[in-house]
């Protein structure tokens, strides 16, 4: 298994290099050269297996034989033992043909743990084998940061620097990033929004001398291994509702497009998914792009689902590349347009292919709040605002016989203020996080300037050559 860049000008890599590389050297994102195939019989055989076993079967083809089966099995078992639910990612029914897939039973209460706990262990393994260290950088609108810090805290081979938008994450999200006592953890509050943080991370990757000097590595969903790990729950959920003999629909609260792209990957691997529905909040750039064919950034609106307050949706590049028939020149042109003018037009054949692969809908803040109330009243289910965004879109799109599976991406306790305001219910942190809000915080506030961030990272990482 080799991996190619969406921009076509970076070397093809094997799995271990893709894992450590993050962004490709041409600024693109890596994708497998071909999609591994799971025939119906292999999908059927996943029914009833524990989550970790499904994970091993689904992910093994992506490793290209670079990590031996015994080591990978032990890493996967250890990863999912960190989850507080026996099913790891359980399904809960919330309506006649509607289910939520709870992805928030990991250590930091968001779906990011599913991939991040694995990524940290895989990176540790590869770095140890190579005798190397890495500087990990990540941008977060709130959840990736906490998950990454939990997963990498105390790991001897990496230092981790997480850039979050100052004052734009929930109080719980902030404490999950700023209260780690591990000396290899660095939380950086950037005076800007998530898109600024993500642009800084990408700029660090695009500065080759800096990248080499600090041995830069990334844990955002630009890293293929994140997407790979997220494909697993599409399989586990679909087979528990009858796949491959019964197609299902997935509705995904979307920001950086990583999670829904994992669903696309699962479909390309043979999982019968009837519809993949993008759910956006008021930052509806993806829904607008699919409707009108123009990807056009606007000012970010702060919402009650802050983790989706994104305009530059990184993984849309992977979807574009696929929809354009893997045309790296066309993908590069679109991305250059985005960088220069904040917009690009999707060529009609590419738009038609995107529309064949994805549907999209939007839930405004008010609609999300009333959905939270309605779901609680009718089903007794307390959804977080990101999940509720997708439930609203799922209900708008209902009508097919295929069950709708809504990805529940965060625990309501991560957003207690929005939950209380919408439902009058308290959303309490689980017992293992009691005391989080009283712990001492440690973070730096930095301007949204590349030099300032690079100086900060360069001076503190132990990986610098
Ligand atoms: C709780 C939550 N829901 C949804 C999303 C959107 O996921 P993605 O960025 O993979 O589209 C995020 C952020 O990534 C998130 O933290
Ligand atoms: N919503 C995300 C934004 C970053 O997404 P990623 O999946 O690319 O890491 C967050 O919570 O940080």
From TrEMBL:
Species source reads Nitratireductor mangrovi
PROSITE patterns given in the database record: DEHYDRATASE_SER_THR
State which pathway it belongs to: Amino-acid biosynthesis
EC assignment: the record states: 4.2.3.1
Instruction: Report domain Threonine synthase N-terminal positions.
Output: 2-80
Which one GO biological process term can you cite for this protein? threonine biosynthetic process
Pfam (any one): Thr_synth_N
Q: Which residues carry this modification: N6-(pyridoxal phosphate)lysine?
A: 112
The record ties this protein, via InterPro entries, to:
Ser/Thr_deHydtase_PyrdxlP-BS, Thr_synth_N, Thr_synth_N_sf, Thr_synthase-like, Threonine_Synthase, TrpB-like_PALP_sf
Can you name this protein? Answer: Threonine synthase
Recorded catalytic reaction(s): these are: O-phospho-L-homoserine + H2O = L-threonine + phosphate
Q: Which cofactor does it need?
A: pyridoxal 5'-phosphate
Q: Which UniProt keywords apply?
A: Amino-acid biosynthesis, Lyase, Pyridoxal phosphate
Q: Which GO terms describe its molecular function?
A: pyridoxal phosphate binding; threonine synthase activity
Family classification: Belongs to the threonine synthase family.
């Amino acid at each position: 298994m080799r991996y190619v860049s969406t921009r076509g000008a970076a070397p093809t890599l094997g799995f271990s290099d893709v894992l450590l590389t993050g962004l490709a050297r041409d600024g693109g994102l890596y994708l497998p050269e071909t999609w591994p195939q799971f025939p119906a019989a292999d999908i059927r055989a996943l029914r009833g297996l524990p989550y970790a076993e499904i994970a091993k079967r689904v992910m093994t083809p992506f490793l290209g034989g670079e990590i031996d089966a015994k080591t990978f099995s032990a890493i996967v078992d250890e990863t999912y033992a960190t989850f507080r639910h026996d099913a790891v990612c359980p399904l809960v029914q919330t309506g006649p043909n509607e289910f939520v897939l709870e992805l928030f039973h990991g250590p930091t209460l968001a779906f990011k743990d599913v991939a991040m706990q694995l990524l940290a262990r895989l990176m540790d393994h590869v770095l140890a084998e190579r005798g190397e260290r890495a500087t990990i950088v990540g941008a977060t609108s709130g959840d990736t940061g906490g998950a990454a810090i939990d997963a990498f805290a105390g790991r001897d081979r990496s230092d981790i620097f997480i850039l979050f938008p100052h004052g734009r994450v929930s109080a719980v999200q902030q404490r999950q990033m700023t209260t780690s006592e591990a000396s290899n953890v660095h939380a950086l509050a950037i005076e800007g929004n998530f898109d600024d943080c993500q642009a800084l991370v990408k700029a660090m990757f695009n500065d080759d001398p800096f990248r080499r000097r600090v041995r830069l590595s990334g844990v955002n969903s630009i890293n293929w291994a994140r997407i790979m790990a997220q494909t697993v729950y599409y399989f586990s959920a679909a087979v528990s509702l009858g796949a491959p003999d019964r197609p299902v629909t997935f509705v995904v609260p979307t920001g950086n497009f990583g999670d829904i792209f994992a669903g696309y990957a699962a479909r390309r691997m043979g999982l019968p998914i009837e519809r993949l529905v993008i759910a956006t909040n008021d930052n509806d750039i993806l829904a607008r792009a699919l409707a009108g064919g123009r990807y056009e950034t606007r000012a970010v609106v702060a919402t009650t689902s802050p983790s989706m307050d994104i305009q530059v949706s990184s993984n849309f590049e992977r979807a574009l590349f696929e929809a354009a028939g893997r045309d790296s020149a066309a993908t590069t042109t679109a991305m250059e347009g985005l960088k220069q003018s904040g917009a690009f037009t999707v060529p009609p054949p590419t738009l038609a292919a995107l529309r064949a692969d994805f549907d999209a809908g939007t839930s405004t803040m008010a609609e999300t709040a009333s959905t939270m109330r309605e779901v609680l009243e009718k089903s007794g289910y307390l959804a977080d605002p990101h999940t509720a965004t997708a439930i609203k879109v799922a209900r708008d799109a209902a009508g097919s016989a295929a069950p709708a599976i809504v990805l529940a991406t965060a625990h309501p306790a991560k957003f207690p203020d929005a939950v209380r305001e919408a439902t009058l219910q308290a959303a309490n942190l689980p017992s293992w996080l009691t005391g989080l809000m009283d712990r001492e915080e440690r973070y730096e506030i930095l301007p949204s300037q590349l030099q300032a961030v690079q100086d900060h990272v360069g001076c503190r990482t132990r990986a610098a050559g």
